[in-house]
Fold:
Amino acid sequence: GSVGMALSGKDTGGSQFFITLSPQPHLEGGYTCFGRVISGMPVVERMTAGDRIIKAWIENDAPILDFRHF
Structure:
């Protein structure tokens, strides 16, 4: 459930992101993890390439976490 920005080269990190479903140690150091799914993982697990996310939000009072532990 960690959320990070997808990159495919210089200046490509503004429109795509990924949500991991398991630890991905090969991504460490190459991508920034900026969020975590806190509810709705069954929905995330059913997502497939090309699905559209219609709504998402960031809670201002969410605690700052060290995502390296997720």
